[in-house]
Structure prediction request, 684 residues.
Amino acid sequence: MTETMTKLQDIFRDFFDDEDIVLTDETTADDIDGWDSLTHVQLIVAVEKAFSVKFSTVEVMKLKNVGEFAALIEKKTA
Amino acid sequence: MSEIKPIDRVYEKVTAKDAPIDYLMGQELTLLLKLSNRIKKYKAKNDIHGTFRLAVLGSYSIQHFVSMLDAFLMGLGIDTEIYEGEYDGIRMDVLDDDSAFYAFKPDMVLLMMDHRDIKVYPQVLQDEKSVDELVSQVMSGFDTIWSRIKKCAPGCQILQTNMVLPPLRPLGNLEAGVAYSDMEFLRRINSRLATAHPDGVTIVDMEYLASYFGKKGWFDYSSYFLTKAGYSPDALPLVCASFARLIASARGKVYKCLVMDLDNTLWGGVVGDDGYDGIELDPHNAVGEAYRHFQRYIKALKDRGVILAVCSKNNEDTAKEPFEKNPDMILKLSDISCFVANWEDKAQNIKNIATMLNIGVDSLVFVDDNPAEREIVKNYLPQVYVVDLPEDPAYYAMALEESNAFSWIEITEEDIKRSGTYAANEQRKELMESFVDYDEYLKALDMSASVGSPEGAQMKRFAQLINKSNQFNLRTIRYSEEQLLAMKDDGIHRLIYVDLNDKFSSYGIISCIVLEKRGDDCFIDTWLMSCRVLKRGVENLALDTVVTTAKEMGCSRLIGEYIPTAKNKMVENFYPSLGFGSLGDGKFELMLEEYSKKEYFIQIVK
Prediction:
């Protein structure tokens, strides 16, 4: 697991209040209890804070899975 | 050893029904979101269903509002069963008589709407008259929804949000200067909502909440487009707190009295050291003006019916001096219904204040600049709402405002008279001391009463008493105004009010009785009285009326019942004291034939 993915997993575990969450590139909102459109926005804010990055509405809309999310973060922090 | 996370502590307090609104407001948003999820799971897992049936319908996404509100209500001990409407499904639920919403049989419905619900806006340069016609059209849309709910869900209380004015102004500054602008149009809708809503509908001021929160943050457009949430998730706790307080008020959890410390709370400095003319209240000094600003806000609370009490560590004479002699004081002695200044501990004094005013300790709000005193009251009297005043007196009024403690569902004439009534109590006590015989005293009070079935505006007060009274209340059954209106005409029930005056004050309606015909028996469904008129003979007068009414209903026997609660021990022996015989199990009977008229010194007027 990449460093970004590990950090992301920690954020997810804290955010969704579930220590059993294991992220893969293919993880989507359907796999995680409580991940809906509104928590999605909150999650984005949490991730923005943790990585000191900013996402636009278009970028948020385009994300298909956690793998793409991690890739976007890596692109922004590179 | 696993560490206890903050979320665990908050979760525990909420499920123990011991998490006041201000406690939850002190938590972070992400924690509250997690908490809402946990509460949802907790209710599902343990199959918990509440008795209070609340429907929430919205034209924007409401699911997070609903689950957070549920957590706030649970923290207050209100067991709620929630119906959550579909996204943008208000009309679908309301206009279909067979909808799941009506099948749910709601006690209360929240209608969450916003400016996006209004489809037609005025054209640029449209004249004022036709703008107002457009406003009327919007209002008739509201009327359709409200009257349908009243018809299909009788007794359901309606909480309707008003319109939040969005921050986008196509006309720029001109929006404020013409009738045809979107802003002015929405403003006119809000002002019509304020004055033209029928009984049973409460308008919730979302426009205030949004302004207070800050419009720019409230309308987070990215999150609206992504989530259809109506307002930013950051505003969720504020919105939930406001609704929770209103719902609690509607359910009878009402704060009625403000208990105030004096030194460094109402004025700067210590009156015992600085003297009545040395304390800081100078209108030409910033600090003095800060205290006067706080007093002005408190005076406005008094004028709307909040009872004021003083609780101060001082000699009584010294403490009263500023009220009597300092011309810069805004509050006067006549504004204070109960004045306690001594050197005893404040928790005990606050308890005594509640006893003297005949109200519950849980209807008191306490303000004191001293954190140590606040801590003692919080620990010994957790039912009291203790407002944490900031260090700077300039922000005292805002802190009290933000506590949102006095957010009542309505204000009646009686509320406003009441604060005066309590002050008149003092004069009455003096009169009593001049009589040796209690009957002579009662005669000298020149009491008169009117008795009847509540009509028009009286119904509002009748419903308010039914939902507020805790102590002198035999069964503590709550009914909404809508339910009472329905019962009044159903041929089975009879509603009786008693309205009392004496030479000192006019009390308005102080006793409510609901009778129900059960064959030959007349069952006393509700009997309550305001504790302000204890030992005046009102019970005797009321029983006379009950007996007469029961006979009119064709009954031969009265059945009364006492259902004990944490607060109504004072009426445990009420029925036996009126000559009822016990049937066991808290039930009592009185044969109408055997009844002989009671004695009282109240003249009945038409």
Notes: Residues 47 and 58 of chain A are 16 Å apart (CA to CA). The two ends of chain A are 18 Å apart (CA to CA).
